[in-house]
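Worked example

This section walks through a single chain of length 63. The input is the sequence exactly as stored; nothing has been trimmed or padded.
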Amino acid sequence: VFKNAIQNIGEVFVFLKRAIMKLIHLHKYIFPLFLIATWCHNSNSTLKHFDGTPIVEEIIFNI
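Given that input, the structure is written out below as tokens.
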């Protein structure tokens, strides 16, 4: 029973590690969008590049 418990804990850790890696992978896309969303909400305007094109649209299309 004890050996099985250790094996199960090991499997849980592997599962958690995979889940965390997936979250980190998604994080690359979610975090900038989250930042932009909060920035837009706070300033009540769209983020723009120096040439005037919206950054938000560009990021959404790049995904």
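What to look for: The chain has a mean pLDDT of 72.
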